[in-house]
Amino acid sequence: MSTTLTLTRGDITEQAVDAVVNAANSTLLGGGGVDGAIHRRGGPDILEECRALRDGTYFRGLPTGAAVATTAGRLPARWVIHTVGPRFTHQEDRSELLASCYRESLRVADELGARTVAFPAISAGIYGWPMEDAARIAVETVRAAQTSVEEVRFILFDEAAYEAFARQVR
């Protein structure tokens, strides 16, 4: 079965899907950008579960490229899958870590039984990943993934991001 890829301009916190992917920081305790928006709109239940994860398995933080799920709180989704994208640097090729965010998020989605998953453009905001390359890695990785997820939605915040992803999907 192949996964349908959908592009949407908009707000990931408004997506009625099984799981939304949070471009989290390693603390799992909220932050700026997508992470902050998900925590604000989803409410305190997400933060409570993230704190429990920090008190247990992820006491040192969630590693870059890994993924873990929590409730979605007040979001229209059922779950939030938190993943930590790599910061872009010209000194080191970290593309495999970025690809791992998508693969690991889909692996967690499969474990949850999620059929629809919404992704932001991981690492393409404050982590500085060039949008064209972020889109290429995202689309190639999702297309190559062995997953039961039926639909992956890329939720893009602005027109430039939407166009970058559209070029890769074509």
TrEMBL record:
<dbReference type="InterPro" id="IPR043472">
    <property type="entry name" value="Macro_dom-like"/>
</dbReference>
<dbReference type="InterPro" id="IPR002589">
    <property type="entry name" value="Macro_dom"/>
</dbReference>
<feature type="domain" description="Macro">
    <location>
        <begin position="1"/>
        <end position="170"/>
    </location>
</feature>
<dbReference type="Pfam" id="PF01661">
    <property type="entry name" value="Macro"/>
</dbReference>
<protein>
    <submittedName>
        <fullName>Macro domain-containing protein</fullName>
    </submittedName>
</protein>
